[in-house]
Design a protein that fits this description.
homodimer, alpha/beta, 434 Repressor (Amino-terminal Domain), Rossmann fold, 3 domains, six-stranded parallel beta sheet, elongated, DNA-binding
DNA sequence: ACATATCATGCACACGTTAACAATCCAAAA
DNA sequence: TTTTGGATTGTTAACGTGTGCATGATATGT
């Protein structure tokens, strides 16, 4: 049997009310008795019953971390860094509950009583109904990784468009003109952003966009592999390929090798994310660093703050992406 | 304001007790009224208040997933697959709460009221005090990934020793005699297991163990890189190197390349885990498949069962590992 | 010495749910 | 008719905690 404040009250010869106040540092209580009670609680190994607390305080002490999906399209490194970033902030003040949005058929079971706040790692516009639900239910929430258009929200995301601009621009500076792109899932918002940077960089350099140099994939290794195969089969194959994430870049590099060609000798390849392994590939991957852990940490901080203060001003915070130059992009071979 | 069973009771002209019974499918209630109430609840958008439920039922509806650490040593793929496996079983019957054991200074706040059950993804013997705490606190729990010695527990793990035996044996069959090993953190139990298989394979083949062919690392990419550098600097360098996980193998391969050598031409390399990316490296990594997602799924199933039935018989379930032959191990060059 | 302000504590209820026990109704048995 | 008993429903308390209000004690000011 667990000790309750009533047990403490009995031993301390006071009412359970006094104990409750003492443990919550109420200014109403004499500091001596307060100390006495606190020490007693400590000795008896008291821990509050959060169910009871929740019931009366109308709080759940749960923070929800929702991904668009936990199945396909979410890369392991991305997932890991997100959880780590948030966990480092949340500690044990709250329970961090991890979920996939697509696990739900309806959102009825998600309400203010079950989550004090929600962090949405939003990858796709498909999440919109879920975000609407959070708004209607009055659950404090923040959206990471994606700018949501319809409704006001707190957004924290990286400047993906600018990031991909930088890496493509870098390719151009190296002398590439035949530059292709391997895209991720069309439904993901970051896909649009990254393509936008690609297109802008090409336009600014006066390079024409070729339809055949844009091939779709789905952010996983295999899709990057097959996409690159398509590009290599082209009559005039590109000299540089920008992949929308590192996973696909790994697949793409593999495809180049399997075709008996070299990276970057025959084809330059760049990725996006700066996954942990990208520095250790051969050749080391030139990519764009995206501060996922930092985004997550900041997001958690903002959310906790807004939970305490009950005041959440819609805002959008952009965190900088950073070009990471390694070995996989070089000057094109003289044609 | 949320609707409660009392609100439903008022509209249905019954007592709140009847509503509670109806919604819980009690056989005491007339099936007509039961239907009527259920429908009404549906229309009113009723969702139970879990705090109240928890308080009276003495359950938290929380399942804890504890990793030894969320910081260093836990690889992203491992983490991701674990969460996925468990999540696929737990669904929304429980909240899945993710934590790192090393986040805690004391375990006082972890008790039967805060977790209905706990899944420990245990990587190190350092977890022992935590496991003891769970036992003492009477919290149903299972231990994944590691055989715990001291106290009775439900264990689900892969047969790592046998797995590494298989891959090292494969190297020997290919003709290697100078075989080295790159170890992970000594504190991790799997490190001992995998070394055991390595040693046995060598002994069975009558190959002498060389001290200089055993170098320590810490399961991350970088440590694999530097460990391989040491091996390459040896006067008589090994022809094959077994890395205790795929991450280190990636680092090791990189080191070989940076030294101007080839895999598997000059040095064969094998890993462990069969991470998602290992098939897409160049050369594709020969490794041992470890069914992490399956272990997690099974573990979750067993835990849920034992929570319902209140009966948990200590047992140890081993899941098979599997040699995955790819390109990174070949016959040694004629010396 | 008395009124008043300040401080410290206790009483009683509330939160939403379940469950032991009591109560009612109606049909069947005596 | 009276009794028994099953089927339904209601009454009440309980879970552990926080809080508005009342109460008592002590110090302050006149």
């Amino acid at each position: 049997m667990n000790v309750t404040i009533k047990d403490i009250a009995r031993l301390a010869q006071v009412s359970h009310t006094t104990v409750s106040r003492a443990l919550n540092d109420s200014p109403l209580i004499n500091s001596e008795t307060k100390e006495k009670i606190k020490q007693l609680a400590q000795e008896m190994g008291y821990t509050p019953n959060f169910s009871a607390k929740s019931l009366v305080m109308d709080r759940s002490y749960n923070i929800g971390l929702f991904f668009s999906t936990l199945n396909t399209g979410t890369s392991a490194g991305f997932f890991y860094e997100t959880v780590r970033g948030i966990n480092s902030v949340v500690k044990d003040a709250y329970n961090l509950v991890v979920r996939g949005i697509d696990d739900y058929e309806h959102y009825r079971s998600i309400h203010r009583k079950s989550f004090d706040g929600v962090i949405v790692m939003s990858q796709s516009a498909k999440d919109e109904p879920f975000l609407h639900h959070l708004s209607e239910a009055g659950i404090p929430h923040i959206v990471l990784n994606r700018k949501v258009e319809g409704l006001p929200a707190i957004n924290i995301l990286s400047d993906d468009s600018h990031g991909s601009y930088k890496v493509v621009n870098y390719m151009i500076k190296k002398g590439h003109r035949r530059i292709a792109i391997i895209s991720g899932k069309e439904i993901f918002h970051s896909t649009l952003e990254r393509r936008d940077g690609f297109v802008r960089a090409l336009q600014d350099a006066g390079i024409e966009l070729k339809e055949s140099y844009q091939v779709g994939a789905s952010y996983d290794l295999k899709s990057g592999y097959t996409a690159m195969l398509k590009l290599l089969a082209l009559p005039e194959r590109p000299t540089a390929v920008f992949c929308m994430n590192d996973d696909m870049a790994v697949g793409a590099v593999k495809a180049v090798h399997d075709a008996g060609l070299q990276v970057p000798g025959d084809v330059s390849v760049a990725g996006f994310d700066d996954s942990m392994f990208s520095a250790y590939l051969s050749p080391a991957l030139t990519t764009v660093k995206r501060p996922i852990e930092e985004i997550s940490r900041q997001g958690a901080l903002v959310l906790l703050e807004s939970i305490e203060q009950k005041t959440l001003a819609p805002e959008t915070i952009y965190l900088r992406t950073e070009l990471v130059v390694r070995e996989s992009v070089a000057e094109p071979a003289k044609a």
